[in-house]
Amino acid sequence: MSNTTYQEIKHSLVAVYREDPRPWLVGFSGGKDSTMLASLVFDAVLSVAVEQRTKPISVLCTDTRVEIPAIAEMIEGTLDRMRKCSQEHNLNIEASLLKPPPEQSFWVNIIGRGYPPPNRTFRWCTQRMKIDPVTVFVRQRIGHWGEAILLLGARRAESASRAQTMAGRVTRNGLRRHEDLPRVWISNPMEFLTTEEVWAYLLQKPNPWGNDNRTLYKLYSNASNGECPLVVDQSTPSCGNSRFGCWTCTVVERDKASEGLLAAGDDRMEKLIEFRETLLHYRDPANGKRNMRRVNGDKGPGPLDITARRELLVQLLALQEETSLPLITPEELLLIQQLWKAARDPDDGRGVARIINKQRGVIMNTNLKELNRLREMEEDVAREKNINADTLRRMLAKVEEYSESHRAHGLPDDLLNILKDDLEAQPAGKKH
User: Fold this and answer.
1) Residue 61: which H helix or E strand, with range?
2) Are residues 189 and 40 in the same domain?
3) Do 182 and 72 fall within a single domain?
């Protein structure tokens, strides 16, 4: 990359920093483009006099909780160095690693709610695990700021579709409105750079926070692929086939990044790749792991059945022991147990504990006396009201689920679907 091009981008950033009072949000995924963008931002602020470094800047990175381990480790180290650099030089830059709440984690949705692993037409993971954490963070800050500018490392040269999308967007002074956050404006300072120019910059210039990009270059070489961008709205191109993303990703046909890292010597990836194949097996309705009625009662492939969810939990806990990676948290396990109580063929409230008690590691204790007393009360009420005891338990569990999340929208529909299940399960002569 020519020094002139770099200086032009840097000078543009400095001018906006000084002349536009709006705070900055900087999208960071740990890949080459977002690393160069963050480096340019740090350089721009460092070139401003110390007393003028007052603009609040937030570097935002999302951790889906199922990131490829090598990428997650590199990102955490980079964010730590960014924070130290900001403190040492009074840059007023914070670096935040945003995660979905436990109730929206990958495993709670799949093993708890029975969502089938994502595919191209049902990519439920993007909204819950990537977009929502960023949206929550931004809305909290916008309440204090009023407006903000979101800087992204998107470039037209990444692909023909990206070029077409970016060329068709209407901008004002180089900025375009965020589709879902109207008080946020998006800027793409690197829009016209080529991939060669990005790598030339990264390999020739150490990052302001103190490390070079040789580790990043080696990761790209090993993975033979690209990065999964920070996703800020549904218009952001998905990871597609060029990605550093989730090791669980079942949207792509082959996870070349994981395979490349395994070939380069990261032995942890072998078991993770095998488990991804397990997820693909469970997603296919032909393999008998899914209900053949949808949640709304319509015929067709529905959620994973309760037996399949138990099987996946057993295999996930075994994988956690084999790899020594923290794959699922105790909080997620508690949420899964709660959701199983509201599933078709509901759990008795002890299923997760029974599974974990057979595994090495954390023991989940359950008050069996209290659980048995509760089940007896539920059966008494069910007999009195002439309804199925499992139906009552599912409805109570569903109400409890909503009350814990402090929301009510959607509860009547969910309760109605449980009643439909009950009617569907009754013999024809008993339906009323």
Assistant:
1) strand 57-62
2) yes
3) yes
What pLDDT was estimated at residue 101? 93
Question: Has residue 63 been placed in a domain?
Answer: yes
Task: Specify the residue for token string 């069910």.
Answer: 382
Q: How confident is the model at residue 182 (pLDDT cuts 50, 70, 90)?
A: confident
Q: Mark residue 207 as left, alpha or beta (left: phi above 0; alpha: psi -120 to 50; beta: remaining).
A: beta
Average pLDDT, the chain: 84
Tell whether 28 and 150 lie within a shared domain. yes
Sequence-ordered list of residues with C-beta below 8 angstroms from that of 357, at least 6 positions apart, any chain: 363, 364
If 0-12 CB within 10 Å is exposed, 13-18 middle and 19+ buried, where does residue 118 land? buried
Q: What is the CATH number of the domain that holds 189?
A: 3.40.50.620
- DSSP for 363-406? PPP--HHHHHHHHHHHHHHHHHHTS-HHHHHHHHHHHHHHHHTT
Cβ contact 175:187 at 8 Å = yes
252 falls within a domain:
no
Strand runs labelled E in 135-242: 148-151, 175-177, 184-187
197 plus 294 within the same structural domain: no
**Residue pair 344/304 in contact by the 8 Å Cβ criterion:** no
- Report helix angle 214-223 to 195-204, nearest 10: 140
Condensed to tens digits (0 to 9), the pLDDT of residues 105-139 reads 999 999 999 999 999 988 999 999 999 999 999 99
Give the model's pLDDT for residue 431.
46
Segment 163-168 shows an average pLDDT of 52
The residue whose two tokens read 């690209």 is 226
Is residue 243 one of the residues assigned to a domain? no
Is residue 51 located within the same domain as residue 140? yes
- Phi then psi for 213, rounded to 5 degrees? -110, 20
Counting Cβ atoms within 10 Å, is residue 275 exposed (0-12), middle (13-18) or buried (19+)?
A: buried
Alpha-carbon distance of 181 to 177, in angstroms, equals: 8
Look up the domain containing 313 and give its range. 284-430
Cα–Cα distance measured from residue 267 to residue 245, given in angstroms and rounded to the nearest whole number: 18
How many separate domains does the chain show?
2
- Same domain (yes/no): 126, 23: yes
Closest CA to 247 of 66, 98, 72: 66
116-to-20, 82, 250, 346, 404 alpha-carbon distances in Å: 46, 38, 10, 18, 24
Does the CA dihedral 263-265-267-269 come out positive or negative? negative
Please indicate, yes or no, if residue 335 is contained in any of the structural domains: yes
Same domain, 41 and 165: yes
Mean pLDDT of 276-300: 93
